[in-house]
Amino acid sequence: xxxxxxxxxxxxxxxxxxxxxxxxxxxxxxxxxxxxxxxxxxxxxxxxxxxxxxxxxxxxxxxxxxxxxxxxxxxxxxxxxxxxx
Length: 85
Known about the structure:
This protein is an alpha+beta fold and 85 residues long.
């Protein structure tokens, strides 16, 4: 992947039933600016999320990094709320 340019890599653990939603959301957010690839370990709800661009681009980084952390934070709040009963 690195031969194509810059790879923004994330390794996250999120509930299995929404795991691919993050990939789809980032893919839609990045659009034509890069390729989004998600793979992982389904048994432990681990997702390796990669956004591949042709070059390092601060605009792409600003587009995805805060969004991913906010997305995961929202999931953790919602998930902990529903599992606390």
